[in-house]
Amino acid sequence: MKHTHTIPVHILSGFLGSGKTTLLTRALDYYQLNGRKPAVLMNELGEVNLDGMQVSAEVPMTEMLGGCICCTIRGDLGLELKQLIDEHQPDVVFVESTGAANPMEMLDGVTDASLLTRVELASVVTVVDAALFAEKSESPKSRTYRLMADQIRCATLILFNKTDLVPPSEWLRLEALIRELNPSAPIVRTVRSEIDFTLFDRLEGGVVRHHRDNALGCTCAEGHSHHEHPDDHGCAVHHAEHSGHSEDAAKAAHHSHDHVMAYTHFFTRAIDSERFEALVGRLPDNIFRAKGILRFTDTASPFMFQYAYRQMDFMKIAPKENVPSVAVFIGEHFDRSVLETELTALECSES
Ligand SMILES: Nc1nc2c(ncn2[C@@H]2O[C@H](COP(=O)(O)OP(=O)(O)OP(=O)(O)O)[C@@H](O)[C@H]2O)c(=O)[nH]1
């Protein structure tokens, strides 16, 4: 069946654990309550789509797992998006990528899709973890800060999230830093990504116009030139590629996050909750994100586990399907085998 109208696509960007899935689940509720049919394209670094489990089964979803959209599987994004739309005829699509992705590459994927089917990039919403941003802005040359900066630069709407973790006296200073990186996107202060979703309706006028007006010149959505981009801008990657230096572009695309890796551990039996918590409490700083579905020997129901920026959360869940007990750990250059040994040891009855 042919679409008769253009389908808006929202890209949800933001560093690992910043609050993208929290935003997505709220957005899906909003659209469904208003009688519109959303669909989701989700990309995760780990081998299991844990974020996807937070999305209701009636929302059509395409999963791209085990790699990052912006590099290893970027070529597929346009086609996956087209397939999702052809099959389910949604009114709106959300693309949630790994927090390690550079949004410019996703913009490319959506642009590819727009050549194949009637889609329009409506917005790039970047969720900023206020506490992490405060810490990383102290070392602006760090790879994490540079990636966060790229994500902020390419946004058409910025959620300054997790404001509950930063003293209000810091908010204005941090927002001014964000404003330096992105002079035009509205910045909305949020806790748990709670915003007025009528903003999304307004964004559905199209992202291209915004970028044309943006002093930083993220005109990439149209595939035009990027001469105005400073060298350290995320879009410089794009520029190199369009000028035919695809190898250089690929290397450049990796510059900001090739250090990020994931380890997925499947548990073969229930584990002790206190020993697991103690293990997570001892995780080195270079493992900064983890999530999972866990079954404990000392509790009746399974739990969804979240760990972001040293904060641990456990939420009772009642999984519909036979989901595995699994945890994904994401960080920089960490030793998988040490972690694997420690996690496997949890499966032995006594330490
Ligand atoms: N304190 C606090 N926690 C938050 C806030 N927003 C989200 N969280 C928590 O942070 C954790 C990560 O949130 P997610 O929405 O899964 O983050 P994400 O960006 O989707 O994470 P990745 O997909 O791994 O990149 C969860 O435990 C959330 O409950 C907030 O405003 N304040």
Automatic annotation (TrEMBL):
What Gene3D superfamilies does the record point to? CobW-like, C-terminal domain, P-loop containing nucleotide triphosphate hydrolases
Gene Ontology molecular function, alphabetical? hydrolase activity; nucleotide binding
Recorded hits in SUPFAM superfamilies, A to Z, give:
Hypothetical protein YjiA, C-terminal domain, P-loop containing nucleoside triphosphate hydrolases
**Gene Ontology CC: one annotated term:** cytoplasm
Annotated region (Disordered) at 227-247
Q: Which terms are listed as keywords in the entry?
A: Chaperone, Hydrolase, Nucleotide-binding
Q: Which residues form a coiled coil?
A: none
Q: Manganese among the record's keywords?
A: no
Report any Pfam family annotated for this entry: CobW_C
Q: Where is the CobW C-terminal domain?
A: 260-347
Catalysed reaction equations from the record = GTP + H2O = GDP + phosphate + H(+)
Domain of life of the organism encoding this protein: Bacteria
PANTHER family the record matches: COBW DOMAIN-CONTAINING PROTEIN (PTHR13748:SF62), COBW-RELATED (PTHR13748)
The Swiss-Prot or TrEMBL record describes its family as follows: Belongs to the SIMIBI class G3E GTPase family. ZNG1 subfamily.
Protein name in UniProt = GTP-binding protein
Lineage of origin: Bacteria, Bacillati, Bacillota, Bacilli, Bacillales
